[in-house]
């Protein structure tokens, strides 16, 4: 499904490199491959060993980083960020990396995730005299680092991180080092790679393939890496409280060519489709997937069921950025602009339409209508995830509970609302089996909170589900 139509949006991607003479240029390519994780703003901060220099703006990577802009960014270390912002959290000042200059030098921060206790910490810091430049929760870490009473930056970071609750994959850079930190549950994906003598870090491994880097390993929950002229040093700043990687990364957000915890995203989606076909055998003529993220699941469903996969829906790839604006009216219009049914394929046919999830239901209703108008005799909607009944507090904009159709409707009520002949969701057990994580425990090392309501961290009263800050 198309992120900007569904109302289910990733909230950022990070990329960093240390020890390469073309650090900013490589970061540009890395960010470009992570563009699906956020299209509202992007930035790169580079270190030449003596000073930090940054450029950022609201727009796509290719729009902000022109050839002239890249000329200015020379150095051996760089961190970059792509950002999605929901209403209230946009604005130039919130585009990352955030860059702070002080007498003792510069500090740049890039963050993927959402801190659930950011408001509480911010109130506390403001009461103690801190003045914030942005409304981003990321800035809280900068203030906590600044206030730590240790002389070494690493010690100040180690002291500050345990105060943060929620989801975070942080890249922190000064003139002489880059630090990488993942929250104790490892909610957001973050991997380490090698490019010659340089180290690279990215939200998704697809970024390594683009820049020619070799995957080394995933960053561990609760791990802090320091990369400097002496190489790489790793330590645990916190005991992991049990891995809880975001399940929606497999189902929907990450690129199919990325691997998360050793599992290829396309393969996981295909297995989800196969599992659906096992759980829900349906009599039909063709299987189709809603582009792009549901194609893999649709192929899996077709393979398992023996019903041919056909391209019943096509995506118009040339719709401008206007349709990224996250307002309800544009979402409605956007469905028609972005997707078209292929009449020659669906006319007179019983169609199984595979989609990865249902958030508000509006888009599914429109797609079902489109397929029927194009002549489909039956439309059976099968969803390669369980119903999303709970908001996400960890950096995914899944809207508030009231906006989630599955929070207060039965499957039969949703079926009726979207106008489908049948509607089926995948079971939680089937989903876990299909993704294939081997971690011990009921959740197998995955966060399932939007499906089950069991959040892996404490949720603070001020935490906002529409994750406005990244
Ligand atoms: S609540 Fe859902 S979307 Fe949010 S981190 Fe957990 S699995 Fe991912």
Figure out the total of helices: 17
Structural class: alpha+beta
Strand order of the largest sheet: 3-2-4-1-10-9-11
> Helix content range of the residues, please?
25-40%
Mean pLDDT: 90
Strands, total number: 23
Overall geometric form:
globular
Record keyword descriptors for this entry.
single chain, 470 residues, alpha+beta, 7-stranded antiparallel sheet, 23 strands, 29% helix, 25% strand, disordered C terminus, binds iron/sulfur cluster
Short characterization:
With 470 residues, this protein is of the alpha+beta class. It contains 17 helices and 23 strands.
Topology:
Layout: H1 3-6, E1 13-18, H2 23-33, E2 41-47, E3 52-58, H3 61-64, H4 67-71, E4 77-83, E5 98-102, E6 105-115, H5 118-127, H6 138-147, H7 153-160, E7 166-173, E8 178-182, E9 191-195, E10 198-202, H8 206-211, E11 214-218, E12 223-228, E13 231-236, E14 245-246, H9 247-253, E15 259-260, E16 263-264, H10 265-279, E17 286-289, H11 295-305, E18 313-315, H12 328-338, E19 339-341, H13 343-346, E20 350-355, H14 362-373, E21 378-383, H15 411-418, E22 422-425, H16 428-435, E23 446-447, H17 449-452
Parallel strand pairs: 14-23, 17-20, 20-21, 21-22
Antiparallel strand pairs: 1-4, 1-10, 2-3, 2-4, 5-6, 6-7, 7-8, 8-12, 9-10, 9-11, 12-13, 15-16, 18-19
This protein binds iron/sulfur cluster.
Explain the overall architecture.
With about 475 residues, the chain is α+β, with helices and mostly antiparallel strands. It has helices spanning about 5, 25-35, 60-65, 65-70, 120-125, 140-145, 155-160, 205-210, 245-255, 265-280, 295-305, 330-340, 345, 360-375, 410-420, 430-435, 450, and strands spanning about 15-20, 40-45, 50-60, 75-85, 100, 105-115, 165-175, 180, 190-195, 200, 215-220, 225-230, 230-235, 245, 260, 265, 285-290, 315, 340, 350-355, 380-385, 420-425, 445. The protein has 17 helices and 23 strands. A hairpin with a 4-residue loop joins β2 and β3. The longest helix has 15 residues, at about 265-280. The protein starts with a helix and ends in an 18-residue tail after the last helix. Mean pLDDT is about 90; it is low at about 465-470. The protein binds iron/sulfur cluster (SF4). Iron/sulfur cluster binds near residues 187, 248, 392, 394 and 398. Iron/sulfur cluster (SF4) binds near residues 248 and 394.
């Amino acid at each position: 499904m198309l992120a900007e139509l569904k109302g289910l949006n990733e909230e950022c991607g990070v990329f960093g490199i240390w020890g390469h003479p073309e650090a900013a240029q490589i970061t540009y390519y890395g960010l470009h491959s992570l563009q699906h994780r956020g299209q509202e703003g992007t930035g790169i901060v580079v270190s030449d060993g003596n000073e930090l220099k940054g450029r950022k703006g609201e727009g796509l990577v290719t729009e902000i980083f022109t050839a002239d802009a890249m000329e200015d960014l020379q150095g051996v270390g760089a961190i970059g960020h792509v950002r999605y912002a929901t209403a209230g959290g946009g604005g130039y000042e919130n585009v990352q990396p955030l860059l702070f200059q002080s007498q003792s030098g510069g500090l740049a921060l890039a963050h993927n995730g959402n801190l659930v206790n950011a408001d509480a910490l911010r109130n506390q810091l403001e009461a103690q005299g801190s003045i914030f430049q942005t409304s981003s929760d990321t800035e809280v870490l900068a203030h906590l680092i600044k206030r730590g009473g240790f002389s070494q930056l690493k010690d100040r970071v180690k002291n500050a991180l345990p105060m943060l609750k929620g989801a975070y994959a942080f890249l922190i850079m000064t003139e002489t080092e880059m630090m990488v930190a993942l929250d104790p549950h490892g909610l957001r994906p973050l991997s380490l790679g090698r490019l010659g003598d340089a180290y690279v870090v990215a939200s998704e491994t697809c970024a390594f393939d683009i820049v020619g880097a070799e995957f080394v390993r995933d960053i561990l929950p609760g791990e802090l890496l320091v990369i400097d002229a002496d190489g790489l040093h790793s330590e645990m700043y916190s005991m992991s409280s049990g891995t809880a990687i975001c399940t929606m990364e497999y189902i929907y957000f990450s690129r199919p060519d990325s691997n998360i915890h050793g599992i290829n995203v396309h393969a996981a989606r295909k297995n989800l489709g196969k599992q659906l076909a096992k759980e829900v055998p349906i009599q039909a003529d063709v299987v189709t997937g809603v582009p792009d993220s549901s194609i893999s699941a649709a192929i899996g469903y077709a393979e398992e069921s023996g019903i041919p996969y056909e391209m019943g829906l096509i995506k118009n790839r040339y719709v401008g950025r206007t349709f990224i604006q996250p307002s309800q009216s544009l979402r409605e219009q956007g469905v028609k602009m972005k997707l078209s049914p292929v009449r020659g394929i669906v006319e007179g046919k019983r169609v199984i339409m595979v989609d990865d999830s249902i958030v508000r239901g509006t888009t599914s209703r429109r797609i079902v209508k489109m397929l029927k108008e194009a002549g489909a005799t039956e439309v059976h909607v099968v969803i390669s995830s369980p119903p999303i009944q709970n908001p996400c507090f960890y950096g995914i904009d899944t809207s508030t509970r009231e906006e989630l159709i599955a929070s207060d409707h039965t499957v039969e009520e949703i079926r009726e609302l979207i106008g489908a002949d049948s509607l089926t969701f995948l079971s939680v057990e089937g989903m876990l089996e299909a993704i294939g994580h081997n971690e011990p425990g009921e959740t197998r090392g995955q966060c399932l909170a939007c499906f089950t309501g069991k959040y892996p961290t404490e949720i603070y009263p001020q935490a906002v589900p529409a994750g406005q800050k990244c």
